[in-house]
Design goal:
By secondary structure, this protein is of the alpha+beta class. It has helices at residues 20-28, 79-85, 126-132, 137-140, 153-159, 166-173, and strands at 5-9, 14-18, 32-36, 41-47, 53-58, 61-64, 102-106, 121-125. The strands form three sheets. The protein has a four-stranded mixed sheet. The chain has a two-stranded antiparallel sheet with strand order 4-5. The longest helix has 9 residues, at 20-28. The radius of gyration is 21 Å and the shape is elongated. 23% of the residues are buried.
Length: 184
Amino acid sequence: MPDRIMRLTKSGLPIAWLSRECAATLYAREQVLWSLGDTLIRMHGGTGRSGRQSFLDIAPIVACSGDHPADAAVPHLTNSVLFRRDHHMCLYCGTVHQPAMLTRDHVVPRVQGGRDHWTNVVTACRGCNQHKGGLTPEQAGMPLLAVPFKPNLFEFMYLANRHIRGDQMEYLRRRFSGRRDWAA
């Protein structure tokens, strides 16, 4: 997996993981306002009239100017990010599974009016999800091992990328909510 560059708004809110090519474009358009961390990537260009080859040093964290989607404050709910939030553990039986053996379970089932929202979904193994069916955990006699929560933007950025550099992790971790042990 290639290194990813963390893009921030000019005020420091994380908005995306970028490829080196996208980051280079931001540098070339002079949209990078500030950066953090030691040089992650050095990209080489052509040779100028002076006979020197040009290069571009890209930092692992870049804050940029420009417009950003208004819904960036609402992390998108996907199974892969949900499973990472719950550490690939069924929140009913406590067993850790491979992603193929996991499902998204609605705490308040959809058949009872439950919504597909961070605070109403948990990771469940297939067996527990089938056993619970269209019941709430209380109705099924299956208490939850943890309370579902919506990750903040910094936690979401961590969950959305499996290969995070130390300086990127340090930037994100300082802004975690403290609801989980994020070392896993």
